[in-house]
Amino acid sequence: xxxxxxxxxxxxxxxxxxxxxxxxxxxxxxxxxxxxxxxxxxxxxxxxxxxxxxxxxxxxxxxxxxxxxxxxxxxxxxxxxxxxxxxxxxxxxxxxxxxxxxxxxxxxxxxxxxxxxxxxxxxxxxxxxxxxxxxxxxxxxxxxxxxxxxxxxxxxxxxxxxxxxxxxxxxxxxxxxxxxxxxxxxxxxxxxxxxxxxxxxxxxxxxxxxxxxxxxxxxxxxxxxxxxxxxxxxxxxxxxxxxxxxxxxxxxxxxxxxxxxxxxxxxxxxxxxxxxxxxxxxxxxxxxxxxxxxxxxxxxxxxxxxxxxxxxxxxxxxxxxxxxxxxxxxxxxxxxxxxxxxxxxxxxxxxxxxxxxxxxxxxxxxxxxxxxxxxxxxxxxxxxxxxxxxxxxxxxxxxxxxxxxxxxxxxxxxxxxxxxxxxxxxxxxxxxxxxxxxxxxxxxxxxxxxxxxxxxxxxxxxxxxxxxxxxxxxxxxxxxxxx
Amino acid sequence: xxxxxxxxxxxxxxxxxxxxxxxxxxxxxxxxxxxxxxxxxxxxxxxxxxxxxxxxxxxxxxxxxxxxxxxxxxxxxxxxxxxxxxxxxxxxxxxxxxxxxxxxxxxxxxxxxxxxxxxxxxxxxxxxxxxxxxxxxxxxxxxxxxxxxxxxxxxxxxxxxxxxxxxxxxxxxxxxxxxxxxxxxxxxxxxxxxxxxxxxxxxxxxxxxxxxxxxxxxxxxxxxxxxxxxxxxxxxxxxxxxxxxxxxxxxxxxxxxxxxxxxxxxxxxxxxxxxxxxxxxxxxxxxxxxxxxxxxxxxxxxxxxxxxxxxxxxxxxxxxxxxxxxxxxxxxxxxxxxxxxxxxxxxxxxxxxxxxxxxxxxxxxxx
Lengths: 483, 367
Hints:
Mean pLDDT of chain A: 94
Helix content of chain A: 25-40%
Mean pLDDT of chain B: 91
Radius of gyration of chain B: 21 Å
CATH class of the largest domain in chain A: Alpha Beta
Oligomer: heterodimer
Radius of gyration of chain A: 23 Å
Shape of chain A: globular
Number of strands of chain B: 18
């Protein structure tokens, strides 16, 4: 263990001198409010909560943590779904939410420099007057921070066309766990040398805390057209997705909902979804208006040829918003099916969709648990919602087992354990199933380069015998070995 | 050029890993792809040829392709073209897949699609002590583990030997065309501002020889509609499509490629600072630019180390990025050494050392 009681005491003494009362939380009852992030099944009480008000304070806090060898965890809005911001019970939770300034907007360079606590959607609102927006759009975008997006390399519904957070970050200022302040990347897509910016994005807060972020902005598309098409089978919907993609269209989003998800979303939103369909696809095209018109006609033709029984085309921006409201309500709507659920985030090659969905259906039957499927079909990012009633003895364990089997299934078909939520504490013990021992050793080397003392977001991302027991890594999924 | 002492040409990644695990030589290891990479940086004592890593595994329906590091990149693109797909990277010169990653090579399409950093979704590599590692994978959305592939992008072979790269593919462009407008360097930012104001969606915005090029792709109807918008605004113009488009694009790309004893310097900064970038490039023999990306490429002939250091210092003082993008044959070893030293210094050097503790790929280059 790196941290010591003495180190923590010295940090508290330092922090009392640096931070005002509102910025340093020592009271147990107040600290309780920070005991988990969006993954509420995992909780830990942080020893101290520090909420710096400025970049300088943040840097000084991390330098002191490094100096005294105190473990720490960074937290933005706490909306993460993998426990990446789960506090360290022996350490300090550093909350970046107050660093919420948009420092600069440069419309011609399509660039904004922001602090880590800026809420994702607030950036898009701030640059809208210039006809620009910030493309990453995780479902939590009304609350999640860009610092959190950077940590998790967050995705969203429009990744298929626009990529992930990493694709929209040009450069970062990071205070590393050794207390160094470094700028990685640049203010354009081009920066000399190895892309260390790209290492920090998605490092789940294990490489330090970002203090400034240069975000790439995109032009708001001239036109957007959105539809929902219904199918009599999940297979037919999956087949339609493959045909859309192989036809040369690059939709901004292709989302799929199965019948259970349709019913739950309709109950929650009254959007007018057809709850008798076996599956539905929400497809959105965007771009120059002529391009969208031509593409949309092709899209409708493909859907009809693939057996869509009905196509609902949004006739207005309000109707489009309603469609998205229904889709994005899926997680909350699962609560109408059962009192609790586990959401998984595995990814599969899109061609494996029929096989995987069939197996998930079989799992639901054999376990007796209802599983809602609502996912980003374009990029194969599944979000099966395994529902259960914690009041029933053994149900929680059964749900966890089913969720784990689904992850293994994703790996078996050549996929990944996480597409956008991150590994965190939630999936850390699945890492050896996806990565070989030597892969994990390489990851460890990289982590130590940023954090030689091992004080930053301990016990996350990389498995340890303490967390997961001794478990040899497999080589499944390694491209080379699969040859 | 330093004399290359030996060339090792493994047949499999496992063989390479074994070789590196037992390697006891004192010189630097230099991975090379198809042995015709036009962007040499520094000759190593032992060259590792990756040309036998020549496999292609294309999964058309999943929009991914895995390729061995030794595969010729343009040959890979030709293979994909027959499948009506492509990797949306358009480097000015050819080389192996491994070299494309190591040099972060791209062209105008990066304006729309991003560069190598955005299109590589997985990679396998062998570190200096023989440790085989991979990250990412065969799915286009994946955040499991550290993204080791990013450390390879732009690393110039100073971190590890790339064994295999997995790219995301895109559908082939249905129709391409571009419009050319006379624009002097001093007015480049103004031109960009006007173009953005027209709500068109170019895939690239290039500049060379006092001419700006707005490049479009998509359906014929969509492209022609956007070109009409440009003509209405800018008036006199020249439109290129089909063979004429291909010929002109090749000519623009050719400007960036260094010839004998030439060095291509890439200057990067915000698009609002294009004038400063052009100013820094004022002593060059040829200049071109990716306007929308804030990138100016300047080709210098017979550049000395002190001139190069002067350029680095000027860029640093102004808060602009500079990198040596490419070198032709016959460039002095000292210029190459100075370039590499910049890449492996400071924090970056420490990260490289963590992955390659014995500095086998960057030995003697600790800036």
